[in-house]
């Protein structure tokens, strides 16, 4: 359970880092502001149109008497909006990272530089980095969509659907959010998506401790924008620990001296 606290600690360290480097904080705000405007419009549109969408999808309930028709459609409308919010939380990071690729690459490199040691660089042209980021983001979003559909269906289970399912949803969101954010630093270290997922699976609690609080904060759209620069900084610090842990500590799962070592980073591939 100590990894949960450690993950949250990296999130706080990242926020402190950008607070101490005000220029980089402002630099990292720009992509989030652009994405926020687009997503706010989409969610407002969903809020106005969800009831019409549910009415179109449930013609069999047109002849139902009150209150059963209202209960069904109100419940489904709420689920549609929650699902849209769930997807927005996940895709917000992916889209913001894609829009702000040059910004966050520079921020992540500066964090590495300030911490000392090697400052890895991908050595790839910008268009290639954008292509790889977009491709990996689509792969992650497909995984998230599968979880989202499953959780949406489980939401109809009485009691469990209103208690356990939302909790699992936040954990799924937090885990993949941590993957998206650490990808900025890990891609510069030559790690492809498969290797990054293996690395995070070895430290699930660390990823959850970092990602779940961030997901909860990201439910407030404006907060997401202001936390993004620190989230990238914290994810870079977390990535440094994953690939180059403190040599004075005991080996941990998923690190270089443990029994479940992930594959060595591979060269970039298309």
Automatic annotation (TrEMBL):
PANTHER family: SULFATE TRANSPORTER CYSZ (PTHR37468:SF1). Keywords: Amino-acid biosynthesis, Cell inner membrane, Cell membrane, Membrane, Sulfate transport, Transmembrane, Transmembrane helix, Transport. It is a multi-pass membrane protein. Pfam families: EI24. This is Integral membrane protein. It is found in: Membrane. One of its GO terms (biological process) is cysteine biosynthetic process. The chain crosses the membrane at residues 24-50, 76-99, 140-161, 167-186, 206-228. It comes from Streptomyces filamentosus NRRL 15998. GO terms for cellular component: plasma membrane. Residues 244-270 are annotated as: Disordered. It comes from the Bacteria. One of its GO terms (molecular function) is high-affinity sulfate:proton symporter activity. Signal peptide: none annotated. InterPro entries: CysZ-like (IPR050480), CysZ/EI24 (IPR059112).
């Amino acid at each position: 359970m100590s990894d949960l606290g450690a993950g949250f600690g990296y999130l706080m360290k990242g926020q402190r880092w950008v607070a101490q480097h005000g220029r980089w904080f402002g630099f990292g705000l720009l992509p989030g502001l652009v994405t926020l405007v687009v997503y706010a419009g989409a969610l407002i549109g969903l809020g106005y149109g969800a009831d019409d969408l549910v009415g179109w999808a449930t013609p069999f309930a047109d002849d139902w008497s009150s209150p059963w028709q209202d209960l069904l459609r109100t419940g489904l409308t709420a689920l549609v909006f929650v699902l849209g919010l769930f997807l927005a939380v996940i895709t917000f990071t992916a889209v913001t990272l894609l829009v702000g690729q040059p910004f966050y690459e520079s921020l992540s490199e500066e964090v590495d530089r300030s911490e000392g040691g090697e400052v890895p660089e991908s050595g790839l042209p910008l268009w290639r980095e954008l292509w790889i980021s977009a491709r990996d983001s689509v792969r992650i979003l497909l995984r998230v969509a599968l979880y989202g559909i499953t959780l949406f269906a489980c939401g109809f289970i009485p009691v469990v659907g209103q208690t356990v399912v939302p909790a699992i949803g936040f954990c799924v969101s937090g885990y993949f959010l941590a993957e998206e954010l650490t990808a900025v630093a890990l891609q510069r270290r030559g790690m492809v998506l498969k290797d990054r997922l293996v690395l995070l699976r070895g430290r699930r609690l660390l990823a959850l401790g970092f990602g779940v609080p961030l997901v909860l904060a990201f439910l407030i759209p404006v907060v997401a924008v202001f936390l993004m620069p620190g989230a990238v900084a914290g994810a870079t610090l977390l990535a440094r620990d994953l690939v180059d842990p403190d040599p004075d500590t005991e080996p941990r799962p998923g690190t270089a001296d443990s029994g479940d070592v992930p594959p060595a980073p591979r060269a970039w591939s298309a």
